[in-house]
């Protein structure tokens, strides 16, 4: 049995270059790949048949920003925040301490459970980061454990200077032995460029060293206030800058300029720096929701991601993030679905093989418990995920 026909799809959202939405559609999966897409009446025969019963089918969510390697609990910090305390980067130390005390087996099990939870919610391709190790052995251990469970991993040694450590000495370690130890397990490097974490110059030093080591770049920027993160990401050719809550006109223009060689209508050309919005995090930290509308109108490709982490966003629900983007961020349903699929794929430079339902791409599919995808926002919080295929296998 190698091929499966998924038929009787009420609304098939391809997110392909023509942005096709096919009524009464069908998809054929051949092992881990998509082999055919089109109207059900023209579908070829297959070994197996799955009746979608008139429900909507989307590409699986691409979650391009998570921090799944952690132990411990920060619910009291969250409760205090809801009572009026503001978020500060220092909370990262609490998780670092708890994670250090978890064995390899315990930590691996936590990551496995979190990935399973994400996949059960429609996520089929995901990134995760280190960043709660903050030491050579711990960062390498977190990268090694993560690499077994996720599609792509990021080195975030530059998440915070640990308490009592000299910043310059720490950056020497991040750009030297820590980077070297994490390198075999990661594709990306990230830096938390923000007041209370790393300055522009410190961030540039880290990003340069990581780029020289062959890693792609990403930046946490402009989360808690205006700052240099977004412009630094654009300057360094980062694949993505994430959070982007507080943007000046110059920031938006700098990101827009990185997309000059890209045609968003056909999703072709040379991609620039994706602006990754993290609505669940914005709600949990009481930050203004990222200005996705301004970014889209400036020609910037936007991604939506969960930022699942214990400090600022303890949810991997992409359904929730898409609902919020439509309800609160003035994104149309099509824009939000694209941002949570192809947008995430662009942020991870994986757009050639995931992020849309097209022949030859990985068979990553998300069947909704609804006849149309707008139900994600129309019925927020309802259990919308009916079935998931990840690389052709039911998740
Ligand atoms: N902003 C930096 N890092 C995480 C939060 C880390 C934490 O507080 O544990 C984020 O993406 O929001
Ligand atoms: Zn993050």
Automatic annotation (TrEMBL):
Chain positions recorded as Zn(2+) binding sites: 65, 67, 220, 307
Gene Ontology terms: cellular component: cytoplasm
BP term (GO), one: L-histidine catabolic process to glutamate and formamide
Top-rank EC class of the record's enzyme: hydrolase
GO molecular function: imidazolonepropionase activity; iron ion binding; zinc ion binding
Cofactor(s) of this protein: Zn(2+); Fe(3+)
NCBIfam families documented for this protein: hutI
This protein's name: Imidazolonepropionase
Species lineage: Bacteria, Bacillati, Actinomycetota, Actinomycetes, Micrococcales
């Amino acid at each position: 049995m190698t091929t499966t026909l998924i038929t009787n799809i009420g609304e098939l959202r391809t997110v392909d270059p023509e942005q096709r939405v096919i009524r009464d559609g069908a998809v054929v999966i051949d092992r881990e790949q998509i082999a055919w897409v089109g109207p059900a009446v023209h579908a070829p025969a297959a070994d197996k048949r799955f009746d979608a019963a008139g429900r909507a089918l989307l590409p699986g969510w691409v979650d391009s920003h998570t921090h799944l390697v952690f132990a411990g609990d920060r619910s009291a910090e969250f409760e205090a925040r809801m009572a009026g305390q503001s978020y500060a980067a220092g909370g990262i130390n609490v998780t670092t301490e708890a994670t250090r005390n978890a064995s390899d087996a315990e930590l691996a099990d936590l990551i496995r459970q979190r990935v399973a939870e994400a996949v059960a919610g429609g996520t089929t391709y995901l990134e995760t980061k280190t960043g709660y190790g903050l030491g050579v052995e711990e960062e390498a251990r977190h990268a090694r454990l993560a690499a077994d469970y996720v599609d792509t991993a990021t080195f975030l040694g530059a998440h915070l200077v640990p308490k009592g450590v000299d910043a310059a000495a720490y950056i020497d370690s991040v750009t030297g032995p820590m980077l070297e130890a994490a390198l075999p397990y990661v594709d990306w490097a990230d830096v938390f460029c923000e007041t209370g974490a790393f300055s522009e110059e410190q961030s540039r030093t880290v990003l340069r060293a990581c780029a020289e080591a062959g890693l792609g770049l990403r930046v946490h920027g402009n989360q808690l206030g205006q700052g240099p993160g977004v412009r630094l990401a654009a300057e360094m050719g980062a694949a993505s800058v994430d959070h982007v809550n507080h943007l000046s006109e110059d920031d938006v223009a700098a990101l827009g300029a990185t997309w000059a060689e890209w045609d968003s209508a056909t999703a072709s050309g040379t991609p620039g720096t994706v602006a990754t919005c993290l609505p669940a995090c914005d709600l949990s930290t009481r930050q203004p929701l990222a200005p996705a509308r301004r970014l889209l109108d400036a020609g910037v490709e936007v991604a939506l991601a969960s930022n699942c982490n214990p400090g600022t966003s303890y949810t991997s629900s992409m359904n929730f993030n898409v609902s919020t983007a439509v309800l609160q961020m003035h994104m149309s349903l099509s824009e939000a679905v694209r941002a949570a699929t192809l947008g995430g794929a662009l942020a991870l430079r994986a757009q050639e093989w995931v992020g849309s339902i097209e022949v030859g791409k990985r068979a990553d599919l998300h069947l909704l418990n609804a006849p149309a995808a707008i139900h994600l926002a129309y019925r927020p919080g309802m259990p919308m995920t009916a079935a998931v295929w990840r690389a052709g296998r039911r998740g």
